[in-house]
Design brief:
Mean pLDDT of chain A: 90
Order of helices and strands of chain A: EEEHEEHEHHHEHEHEEHH
CATH topology of the domain at 11-93 and 165-252 in chain A: Rossmann fold
Number of helices of chain A: 9
Radius of gyration of chain A: 18 Å
Oligomer: heterodimer
Number of strands of chain A: 10
Distance between the termini of chain A: 55 Å
Number of helices of chain B: 14
Largest sheet of chain B: none
Low-confidence stretches of chain B: none
Strand content of chain A: 15-25%
Radius of gyration of chain B: 28 Å
Structural class of chain B: mainly alpha
Distance between the termini of chain B: 46 Å
CATH architecture of the largest domain in chain B: Orthogonal Bundle
Largest interface: A-B, 30 and 25 residues
Low-confidence stretches of chain A: none
Number of strands of chain B: 1
CATH class of the domain at 11-93 and 165-252 in chain A: Alpha Beta
Shape of chain B: flat
Largest sheet of chain A: 6 strands, mixed
CATH topology of the largest domain in chain B: MetI-like fold
Structural class of chain A: alpha/beta
Helix content of chain B: 55-70%
CATH class of the largest domain in chain B: Mainly Alpha
Shape of chain A: globular
CATH superfamily of the largest domain in chain B: MetI-like
Order of helices and strands of chain B: HHHHHHHHHHHHEHH
Chain lengths: 254, 374
């Protein structure tokens, strides 16, 4: 056996298949995310990209294929699930902050109750994270008192509290007003510049071309095309990708 | 060339100013509310006058012509109004039932304790944990005091307990045991494991399909036939268990409604943070679900207070049962109406107190959740 030239992927899927009832939503998905790299998943709605990213941290189960996150092979056991969730942090389209808790408690609750971290240590780690997402002044507010962009930045800080090996973003800017999208994207680009591995489901093609190492285009549960952003946007090789890029480009002109 | 639109909007810089005032003054407001038009005036008079007339007849009977003191009931026989003397004469039986007369000071202390903490804990700034611990202390003190057998207090068997202290204890036990059981049943009903969810559905639907009277009869009279004779559980305790299960079956559905109101994203976020099931429930889902369920839950809690009256059919004298017993006295038997009115007032006062408690808790919950995500 020869040693691999490149480090093994952080996240690896091999021939992953998933059905909702008889509906085949993920078909023979094979992909790998290298450490420190950023993967952007795009495609029309219903293409399976959200389902795919939710499989990574076990929010969705799959029927066939292999999934490995870090050192953990997802075998459906409770231990594997816990290990995968320790290794990943997730940011949702609708933020899913806990409305009955302050911003600070939203950040510290996870580490305190899943790792048994002492409260003062969790608070000490939370402060620089809130500073990083520019929300120090909102520390003791409740989510309902914040704007959408602020809420999503809290959600990012909350996921970072777990010091995840991989960050998963599931359409993080789709529920935001246009003027708030950039403040969230700025934080994500800042993270990317720091070498955080991430998988991002998004329609923000500007973000994809600036940040992504690999753009993966999905349609009808299949990976149709995968290429670095320059190549993907300049010359999509399939008709389906061409149509999609064309739509996106027209929106960008407006 | 651009067409000039017919629509228009006028840019204008204006300072902010207060809204214009409506009409002021009590008379003006009364007029606006009750006599604004001929129709309003007719409605006010048609509904208002009979109400005033009934209120006057009632007050004349209850206050003006009433007799307050009547040794041996003599004065009451001549009066045309209410005979409140029956309450003065019988209040100790009403309040304490068959509890030994010379030990009834314990009952007084108990009632003072419950009302005292009831009022004190209604104060908004008392945190929920402090309220609950306070009630636990109150309940333990009550049981020790009522039962005796320690600290030089003579032992009083639960068969002799009665009146308001019994009502309080049964009610508190029902809520204290019923709410946690209801939470478990509601969570169990949503479980993925078919045995657990099936069992919970069976308990909830089964108990909801049976009258409380039957549940109590079963718990107090039939259950002992199935249990080994060595396992001699107190009748009061058995009936209490019946009350708890009955309460929990209804409250479980109320709490399930609260659980359904919480978006799935809340649990997903907690899962993504790696929280195990019970942590997710305890810290994320239940605090929100119970806040949502609070109004309906207090509906059940108030009903539980009134359901304590069912204990009288088991030969246990709650306030209503004790009143019924007190009014057996041939001298006073004619004044049952007054006796029952007094008990109704007692129930009304406590139920209103519970309503007030519920409102305060709701406000607290909404102050937190009202800031919640839209």
């Amino acid at each position: 056996m020869s040693a691999p030239a490149t480090p093994p992927p952080m996240v690896e899927m091999v021939d992953l298949n998933k059905w909702f009832g008889s509906h085949h939503v993920l078909r023979d998905i094979t992909l790998g995310l290298a450490p420190g790299e950023k993967m952007v998943l795009c495609g029309p709605s219903g293409s399976g990209k959200s389902t795919l990213i939710r499989c990574v941290n076990g929010l969705e189960t799959f029927q066939e294929g292999k999934l490995r996150v870090g050192k953990t092979v997802m075998d459906g056991s409770g231990e594997a699930l816990a290990a995968v969730r320790r290794a990943t942090g997730m940011v949702f389209q609708h933020f899913n902050l806990f409305p009955h808790l302050t911003v600070m408690d939203n950040l510290t609750l996870g580490p305190i109750y899943t790792r048994g971290e002492p409260e003062d240590s969790a608070i000490a780690r939370a402060k620089p994270l809130l500073e990083r997402v520019l929300l120090t002044s909102e520390t003791w507010k409740y989510p309902g008192q914040l704007s959408g962009g602020q809420r999503q930045r809290v959600a990012i800080a909350r996921a970072l509290m777990l010091e995840p090996e991989v960050m998963l973003f599931d359409e993080p800017t789709s529920a935001l007003d246009p003027e708030m999208i950039h403040e969230v994207l700025d934080v994500m680009e800042d993270l990317a510049a720091d070498g955080q591995s991430m998988i991002v489901v998004t329609h923000e093609m500007g973000f994809a071309s600036r940040v992504a190492d690999l753009v993966v285009f999905m349609d009808a549960g299949e990976i149709v095309e995968a290429a670095p952003p320059d190549a993907f946007f300049a010359a999509p090789s399939t008709d389906r990708a061409k149509t999609f890029v064309g739509h996106i480009a027209r929106e960008g002109d407006q | 060339m651009d067409r000039v639109p017919a629509s228009f909007a006028v840019p204008k810089a204006s300072d902010s100013r207060p809204p214009p005032h409506g009409r002021r003054g009590i008379l003006a407001r009364l007029h606006a509310r009750y006599f604004a038009s001929l129709w309003d005036t007719v409605v006010t008079l048609v509904i208002g006058l009979p109400l005033l007339l009934m209120a006057w007849f009632f007050l004349k009977w209850a206050l003006v012509d009433a007799v307050w003191v009547a040794p041996e009931g003599k004065a009451c026989q001549l009066a045309s109004g209410a005979c409140w003397a029956v309450v003065a004469e019988k209040y100790r039986v009403i309040l304490f039932g068959t509890y030994p007369f010379e030990e009834q000071w314990r009952g007084f202390v108990t009632i003072a304790l419950w009302i005292g903490w009831g009022i004190a804990s209604g104060w908004r700034r008392v945190p929920l944990a402090a309220r609950l611990w306070g009630w636990l202390v109150v309940a333990v003190v009550t049981v020790v005091l009522m039962r005796g057998g320690v600290f030089g207090l003579s032992l009083v068997s639960t068969d002799e307990w009665g009146g308001l202290p019994l009502t309080f204890l049964v009610f508190a036990g029902t809520v204290a045991g019923g709410v946690p059981l209801a939470v478990l049943l509601a969570l169990g009903r949503r479980s993925d494991l078919p045995i657990i969810s099936g069992l919970c559905v069976a308990v909830i639907e089964g108990v909801r399909g049976i009258p409380l009277l039957v549940v109590l009869f079963f718990a107090a009279l039939i259950l002992p036939l199935f249990l080994p004779p060595q396992l001699n559980i107190d009748k009061l305790l058995r009936a209490e268990i019946g009350m708890i299960i009955f309460f929990a079956a209804y409250a479980a559905e109320v709490i399930r409604g609260g659980l359904q109101a919480i978006p799935a994203g809340q649990e997903e976020a907690a899962k993504a943070l790696g929280m195990p099931y019970w942590t997710r429930m305890r810290k994320i889902v239940l605090p929100q679900a119970l806040s949502v369920a609070l109004p309906a839950l207090f509906n059940d809690i108030i009903r539980a207070f009134k359901n304590t009256t069912f204990f009288s059919i088991l030969g246990l004298f709650d306030v209503l049962g004790a009143t019924k017993a007190a009014l057996q006295d041939p001298v006073w038997v004619r004044y049952g109406l007054e006796g029952y009115l007094f008990v109704f007032m007692v129930y009304l006062v406590f139920c209103l107190g519970l309503t007030f408690h519920g409102r305060e808790m709701e406000k607290n919950a909404w102050r937190r959740l009202g800031r919640g995500e839209a």
